[in-house]
């Protein structure tokens, strides 16, 4: 007898394995609910595909252990036929590999075929930072266009922190009042609950102090540093919406988002001679290759300047 899982039927042993895997991802890997939901959806699609691929019979663990490389490739081909780009197919394959590695480690099944699959080629887009001039313009104007002055001060403090320390928006909004960057360093908990230490520029601490001085709410030490107009934790969507409004007023590109301030932090450091590995540590990147994209961006920008400025380049 089959049991419902993720909106369709599955063999009981698969249902049990998936339940344990999802709990493991929550407790051991401490993945966010959004990430776990993405994994869950990817596996649901794969099992639905297998059910149809097998003539309507939901697979059990023995069936999963006997899958051949050609079976996995058939699934990837179906994703491609459905219009999924390489990045989406690569993410779904990563979800599947994650599950099969866990199944192997937990002793439930072993399937070496999935390790033989090539990851779909993904051309990662280069970061799209703001120029130094546009960043300065944005930060200087970020407290404007607000009916309540303290909200403008809050926005400026938040955006200055994102740019001055290279934080993700989630990291900045996750700070508690006791963690306010008012000294020379800031300890941040990033992805995977990994901590990193970041130097704090005077411009950042000054902006945060100015916000705290006019904030109308009492901020308890363990409460959020950045709050909304009702005193609750500021939501990322609010900061993103305000940045969209400001970029329209300042005629900035659509790529001017809170995350672009983090890109700008890294790009401007690299352009000024910053060491790539030091920037990796500041950003909290697990892999140097992720940080190296900023080198690719710098090279692309240099080539663009060359093509537009060199006399021979202009002549073709």
Automatic annotation (TrEMBL):
UniProt KW Iron-sulfur keyword: no
Residue ranges constituting the Core-binding (CB) domain according to the UniProt record: 12-104
Principal subcellular localisation of the protein: cytoplasm
Gene Ontology, cellular component aspect: cytoplasm
Domain Tyr recombinase: 125-307
Pfam families: Phage_int_SAM_1 (PF02899), Phage_integrase (PF00589)
InterPro entries linked: CB (IPR044068), DNA_brk_join_enz (IPR011010), Integrase-like_cat_sf (IPR013762), Integrase_catalytic (IPR002104), Integrase_recombinase_N (IPR010998), Integrase_SAM-like_N (IPR004107), Tyrosine_recombinase_XerC/XerD (IPR023009), Tyrosine_recombinase_XerCD (IPR050090)
Catalytic-site annotation from UniProt: 168, 191, 259, 262, 285, 294 (o-(3'-phospho-dna)-tyrosine intermediate)
One GO MF term attached to the UniProt entry: DNA binding
UniProt-listed SUPFAM superfamilies: DNA breaking-rejoining enzymes, lambda integrase-like, N-terminal domain
Places the protein is found: Cytoplasm
BP GO terms, sorted: cell division; chromosome segregation; DNA transposition
Keyword Metal-binding: no
UniProtKB keywords: Cell cycle, Cell division, Chromosome partition, Cytoplasm, DNA integration, DNA recombination, DNA-binding
HAMAP family named in the record: Recomb_XerC_XerD (MF_01808)
Role this protein plays: Site-specific tyrosine recombinase, which acts by catalyzing the cutting and rejoining of the recombining DNA molecules. The XerC-XerD complex is essential to convert dimers of the bacterial chromosome into monomers to permit their segregation at cell division. It also contributes to the segregational stability of plasmids.
Annotated family: Belongs to the 'phage' integrase family. XerC subfamily.
Quaternary assembly: Forms a cyclic heterotetrameric complex composed of two molecules of XerC and two molecules of XerD.
The name this protein goes by in its record: Tyrosine recombinase XerC
Organism: Azospirillum griseum
Name of the encoding gene: xerC
């Amino acid at each position: 007898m089959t049991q419902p899982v993720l909106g369709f039927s599955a063999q009981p042993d698969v249902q049990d394995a998936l339940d344990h895997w999802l709990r493991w991802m929550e407790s051991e890997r401490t993945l966010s609910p959004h990430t776990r939901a993405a994994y869950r959806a990817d596996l649901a699609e794969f099992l639905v595909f297998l059910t149809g691929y097998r003539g309507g019979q939901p697979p059990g663990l023995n069936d999963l252990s006997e899958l051949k490389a050609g079976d996995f490739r058939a699934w990837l081909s179906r994703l491609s036929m459905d219009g999924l780009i390489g990045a989406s197919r690569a993410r779904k394959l990563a979800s599947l590999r994650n599950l099969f590695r866990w199944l192997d480690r937990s002793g439930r099944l072993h399937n070496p075929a999935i390790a033989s699959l090539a990851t779909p080629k993904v051309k990662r887009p280069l970061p799209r930072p703001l120029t130094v001039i546009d960043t300065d313009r944005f930060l200087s104007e970020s407290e404007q266009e607000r009916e309540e002055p303290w909200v403008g001060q809050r926005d400026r403090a938040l955006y200055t922190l994102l740019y001055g320390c290279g934080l993700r928006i989630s990291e900045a909004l996750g700070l508690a009042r006791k963690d306010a960057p008012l000294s020379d360093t800031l300890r941040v908990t990033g992805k995977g609950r990994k901590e990193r230490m970041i130097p704090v520029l005077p411009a950042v601490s000054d902006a945060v102090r100015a916000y705290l001085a006019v904030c109308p709410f009492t901020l308890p030490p363990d409460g959020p540093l950045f709050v909304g107009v009702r005193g609750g934790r500021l939501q990322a969507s609010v900061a993103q919406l305000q940045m969209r409004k400001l970029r329209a007023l300042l005629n900035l590109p659509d790529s001017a988002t809170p995350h672009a301030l983090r890109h700008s932090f890294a790009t401007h450091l690299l352009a000024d001679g910053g060491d790539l590995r030091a920037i990796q540590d500041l950003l909290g990147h697990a892999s140097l290759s992720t940080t190296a994209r900023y080198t690719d961006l710098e090279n692309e920008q240099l080539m663009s300047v060359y093509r537009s400025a060199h006399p021979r380049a202009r002549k073709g």
